[in-house]
Design brief:
The structure holds 2 protein chains of 2 kinds. Helix content of chain A is 70%, strand content 0%. The longest helix of chain A has 21 residues. The chains are: A mainly alpha, B mainly alpha. Chains A and B meet through α1 and α2 of A and α1, α3 and α4 of B.
């Protein structure tokens, strides 16, 4: 799997998609931000795991 | 007086944030594209002269941004009744969590690896020795953390700047 952050466009698109997901999530759980933050952390873990793949650009 | 204090803190937070993220975008949008295309001597020269200066402003701006942000939240908590637990606070907290992860990336991954690269380049130029075998690994680690921060800066700015007025209106309690 190609690492999305190896290209600028992949980085920006990933950031925009993450923003949209989190924005909807924060609307959906307007009183449950702790859950939202937990999911941010999980997403961060997944993304970080993806990015540690030794795919040299 | 308290309002002036909060305004100054907010001003410092945003000025330092522009410096931090501006340099982050320079590294990712300009330098990461240019360096591989430069001649080895020119790249080494830029690594010795340009990079340390850019990283100096980058890492300290990151720390100042974060500290001013934390002080601002604490100040608002004392100044504004009901601030803690408000939707505005929660949105800032989500952005702040992302900013905290990014700060750790700057000081824990990007700077230590870039420092090794600068020291190795200085050694290579001064003593005409080959670059260490681990140098591509250091560069890759710093690159990934830097790209991750670029990615995270997009939702961070949304939650810090765009979401409070937007979602505040949609979810006014």
């Amino acid at each position: 799997m190609k690492n999305p952050v190896d290209s600028i466009s992949g980085t920006i698109w990933s950031g925009v998609i993450l923003t949209i997901v989190l924005a909807f999530l924060s609307l959906a759980v307007s009183k449950g931000y702790n859950l939202a933050m937990l999911i941010v952390l999980i997403l961060w873990g997944v993304l970080f795991g993806l990015m540690r793949k030794p795919t040299m650009p | 007086m308290a309002l002036l204090y909060a305004a100054i803190l907010r001003w410092v937070h945003i000025l330092a944030g522009i410096t931090w993220i501006g340099l982050l975008y320079y590294f990712n949008y300009v330098q990461a594209w240019s360096f591989p295309k430069m001649e080895a001597a020119a790249r080494a020269n830029a690594t010795q002269i340009l990079l340390p200066r850019a990283l100096l402003w980058f890492r300290w701006a990151a720390l100042v941004t974060w500290l001013a942000g934390v002080l601002l939240i604490i100040s608002y908590a004392f100044m504004i009744p009901g601030y803690m637990g408000s939707s505005r606070f929660n949105l800032i907290l989500v952005g702040g969590l992302m900013g905290t992860i990014m700060l750790v990336n700057v000081w824990g991954i990007i700077w230590p690896n870039q420092k090794r690269i600068i020291e190795a380049t200085n050694n290579t130029v001064a003593n005409a020795v080959p670059a260490p075998a681990d140098q591509p690994k250091w560069a890759r680690r710093a690159f990934l953390a830097s790209r991750f921060n670029t990615l995270m800066s997009i939702p961070l700015v949304f939650f810090m700047v765009a979401a409070p007025p937007l979602l505040g209106q949609l979810t006014t309690k």
